[in-house]
Amino acid sequence: MSKKKNSIWTFFASVKLALFVLFILAIASIIGTVIPQNSPVDVYVKQYGENMARLFQILDIPDMYNSWWFTTMLFLLALNLTVCTIERLPSVWRMVVLDNLKTDLGRLSKMQPNKQLITSKLPEEAAVQVRAGLHDKGWKSTEAARDGGILLFAQKAPWTRLGVYIVHTSILVIFAGAMIGSYFGYKGSVMIPETRSTDTIYEFGTRNPIKLGFEVFCNRFTLSHYPNGAPKEFRSDLVIVDDGGKEVARKSIIVNDPLSYKGHTFYQSSYQSYEKFLITLVNNETKNKELFLIEPGKQVQWDAEKVAFGIINRGMTDTPGKFTYKIWFSGGDTSEPFWIIEGDTTVINESGKAYTFSMKEFYATGLQVTKDPGVWCVYIGCGLMLFGLMIAFFFSHRRVWVYISRENDQTSVRVTGNTNKNKPAFDKNFETVSHTIEEKLT
User: Taking residues 343-368, what's their average pLDDT?
Assistant: First the structure.
């Protein structure tokens, strides 16, 4: 049974199937955008009610893009594109490789545009001039003797007929990349306090731990504010530690400017504040330096320098997000151990020594982590799609025939041609070519 008569083959090759699948995928994408994905069940119960939440679970709406029915729709689309390509590509390929010098001469007089020129030159001499005219306009011609005359043929961009099939292929490549990423990649998150590191993230939805195979160290987290005190930017200074404890990568990341390493991408997504402070103390003379993590109201001892300090309270300022701090700092022989600090850094003179006292609020950076081994496949597919669309929309297969024959002691030169798209532009190009040929023959 031929493919055209096979009802199953016809079904999968139909445009109606493609439109139906695309419609379902479009509706599903809208639903997946409106309804939060991978949230706990109680979130859906609270927002949509128990019955609707149960329906969501049956239809895998909370994880729709990995659901069986969404994957089935993608598979149907891929199968439809594949069958359509197998069905139509052979006939298109025959047009690409067709020997146009065997074209029926009777068709040439019926093609449009069409122009007949008369010259006194012999056919062989006229053929030389026609070849020159075509060459001058960028057309490379071939020729053959036909029915006592000479047929010349030239074409441009026959391969552009394949543009739509490049687009088909690109969709399949993107689909393959998405499947690779879905089955072999993962997404997760982690909170890393400043001055701490981790080699584990937690998968979205399941919260299962995933080992990275290397450590991510948060060296510093910085939160900046707008003049009204609202958060403006959060920035994390990250260090990747691998190869037996070596620093292999470092980057200060902000939202939409991630760090990538070994197929993992670390995005800045959130932060968490603690009721603690990072204090850096430096002896300005000896350059002795120490980092402390302290809580307000608790005394901390720096044994190497024999000083003690602590944060007593925090006061508001006229600038939102800016505070003053009252600290206690003593080397043991002072009667005025209290200092008021406004800002992050100050110099404290105590017991004949000068110390640089730097403090900042202690944060944990919230990172979103993704690993997608299929991302390069998706990138290649997107590149193919752009290339295929450019070919399909901006290029065309243009053909020109010139038949030269001797009639009544004169030589007839019939110029004709066609294109598979953008006929107005081709008509202008044809007029230029035929005019050049006419000038060569005079």
Answer: 86
Residue 26 has pLDDT above 70, yes or no: yes
Cα 198 to Cα 192: distance, rounded to the nearest angstrom: 7
Q: Domain spans of the chain?
A: 7-94, 98-157+396-441, 182-273+365-384, 275-362
Q: Give the residue from 243, 248, 271 showing the smallest Cα distance to 259.
A: 248
For the record, the structure tokens of 311 come out as 């944060």
Are the C-beta atoms of 39 and 62 separated by less than 8 Å?
A: yes
Q: How many whole angstroms separate alpha carbon 160 and alpha carbon 44?
A: 50
Report whether 185 contacts 210 (CB < 8 A). no
Q: Choose among 287, 289, 283, 291: nearest CA to 353.
A: 283
Q: Two tokens at 3?
A: 């493919």
Under CATH, domain 98-157+396-441 is a member of which superfamily? Answer: Kinase associated domain 1, KA1 (3.30.310.80)
Residue 332 is predicted with a pLDDT of 60
The structure tokens 């594949």 sit at 82
**Residue 4: pLDDT over 80:** no
Tokens of 430: 């044809």
Give the end-to-end CA distance of the chain in Å, rounded to a whole number. Answer: 59
**Interval 127-132 mean pLDDT:** 94
Work out the burial of residue 211: count CB atoms within 10 Å of its CB; fewer than 13 is exposed, 13-18 middle, 19 or more buried. exposed
Residues 400, 205 contacting (CB under 8 angstroms)? no
Dihedrals φ, ψ of 5, to 5°? Answer: -95, -10
Q: Determine the longest span between alpha carbons in the chain, in angstroms.
A: 127
Helix (H, G, I), strand (E, B) or coil at 373: coil
DSSP state of 67: S
Confidence class for position 1, pLDDT limits 50, 70, 90:
very low
SS3 330: strand
Partner residues linked to 348 by β-bridges: 355
pLDDT at 334 over 60: no
Neighbouring CB atoms inside 10 A of 1's CB total: 7
- Could you tell me the fold of the domain covering 182-273+365-384? Tick-borne Encephalitis virus Glycoprotein; domain 1 (2.60.98)
Q: Quote the pTM value.
A: 0.71
- Is pLDDT of 417 > 90? yes
In the three-class reduction of DSSP (H, G, I as helix; E, B as strand; rest coil), residue 388 is classed as helix
Q: Which DSSP symbol is given to 36? A: P
Looking at this protein, which amino acid is placed at residue 377?
C
How many CA within 13 A on the CB side of residue 24?
16
Sign of CA dihedral 14, 18, 21, 23: negative
